[in-house]
Amino acid sequence: MSTPDRNISDSGAEKPDGRRLTILMIDSHAAVERGGAVQCASLARALARRGHRVTCIFDGKPDQPLQGTWFRALQEAGVRVLRLGLKSPAGMLRLRRMLTEERPDILHTHKNRALFFAFFATLGKRRPVWVTNRGTVYPLSRKRLAYAIHRRCVARMLAVSQAVGESLVADGIPAGNVEVVYGSFDPERFDPEVSGDAMREKWQVAGETSLVGLVGSLKTPKKGHPVLLEAAALLKEKRPDLRFVLVGEGDPEPLQSMATSLGIRDRVIFAGFTEDVPAALAALDVVVCASLRGEGLTGALREALAMARPVISSDVAGNRELVIDGRTGLLVPPGDPAALADAIDRMLGCESMARDCAANGRERVLELCTEEKRADRVEEIYRELLTARRPLNCGEGVSS
Question: What is the pLDDT, as a whole number, of residue 68?
Answer without folding.
Answer: 87
